[in-house]
Amino acid sequence: MPGPFLENRYFVALLIFWCLLGIWLCGGAHVVLGTTETLMVSSAYPSSVVFFVLTGLGMIGLHLIVRRNARARARFFARLPGLVFRIDKDGLIEFASEQGLDWIGANLATDGRPDLRDHILDHASLINLRENAISAQGDITVAELPLTTKEHEQRWLRVQMRSLPPYTSDCQIDCIVWDITELVRERNLRRESQNRLETMANLSNEALFLHDSGKCVDANNAAERMFGYGRNALLELSAADIISSETLPTVTDNIQSGYDKPYEAMAKRHDGSQFPCEINGRNVLIDGKTLRLTSFRDITERRTAEEQIRFQANHDALTSLPNRYLFMDRLTFAIKLSKRRRECFALMYIDLDGFKTLNDTRGHIIGDKVLRDVATRLSAKLRDVDTVARIGGDEFTVILSGSETPEDAEIVANKLKDALTSSPVDLGPDEAPYLVTASIGISLYPDHAETIDELISAADSAMYMAKKNGRNTFRFATTKRSENS
Fold this sequence. Notes:
Elements: H1 9-33, H2 38-79, E1 83-87, E2 93-96, H3 98-104, E3 107-108, E4 114-115, H4 123-135, E5 141-148, E6 154-163, E7 173-179, H5 181-203, E8 207-212, E9 215-219, H6 221-227, H7 231-234, H8 239-242, H9 248-257, E10 263-268, E11 274-286, E12 289-298, H10 300-314, H11 324-341, E13 345-352, H12 355-362, H13 364-380, E14 387-390, E15 395-401, H14 406-421, E16 438-445, H15 452-468, E17 474-476, H16 480-484
Parallel strand pairs: 16-17
Antiparallel strand pairs: 1-2, 1-7, 3-4, 5-6, 6-7, 8-9, 8-12, 10-11, 11-12, 13-15, 13-16, 14-15
Helix pairs in contact: 1-2, 12-13
């Protein structure tokens, strides 16, 4: 096996040719052939010999320098954490770094070449890599592939290849193999995490929008279901297309200011219908660009539940009329409004006649039917601005806004009395109809009282006066002010 000096056969052949040429030109050929005088040869010999000897020594020195650089390069490659190897024109490995060979568990074959078979690539794969590198014309090509080390550990490698000039079919290919196991593992974890997030986003009932200053960039499946648009149509929308005009200024201001707290707005679907939603937005940095991630939650059911709770808190469960709490609130408002407008209003206190006897003799179910029918009849005879409330078992109150005179209140009282007595309450085929009558007490603000308690007390006293006077009638309150007048 030739030593390091003779490994480059082309250089050795050139050096031998140069030496023979020097001998020939220095007269060696004439001496051999006997065609020149010895003296003449001796006189030309020193200068020619010196020139060619020095030139030959220079070439040898250059070769040594090249060989030393090659060894340094080999030592550098040997210390690299990865594997460095070279593919020759036959698709075989002609050089590989020792540390890289030890890392993958390969060794030198019997012919002195690195044996990488069954470790990284088979011969067909090497040929394929070689062809790709040659076609790249000196540009680096990259391939990633799995590897099982000598410790039976599964690793991932990145192979970087580059062809050396001239870019012909027999040029050499330098390859560097890097261990990218951690990178691949991190990439796989990131991909799995992204897939999980996408799955969770698509399974979520919240609509998610990624947008740039209100212009949609991406959206999840829930956004398609919530707003009734296809995915391509969603990507062409802006905030004005899915937010009602009433709440659009608020949403726009929050987008521009980067507001990151939940707030409510009215959204609109593709068919034009609107629904209440809770919006929560946050600025995010993606690929060096600031975008905004916004979630939409349909709160129609929550609003309905809240309204139902508010209604139940302020209304009677049996008749759906305002209860005592809401009645007191509206009476307070009526007094304040009357003070500001300097006008009057009337308060009626209605108590059904003989209702306790009905409950005791025919049961609470029949009594409840009567109460519901009474509530319906009273509501039908009043204006929307008036308030009729149930404040007790068989006690009802009515606030008549804008009743300036007792005559106005008297007209309404007669209407209510006639509505109750116009026909008996139908209690079903198995029960006899029941004729309802009521006693009504009326107080006027501010003629009979100026405070809530006094106004209610005056109407209540007038109601008892009506009961003492035969029932099924009404009476006005009496106060010192009315007596003095």
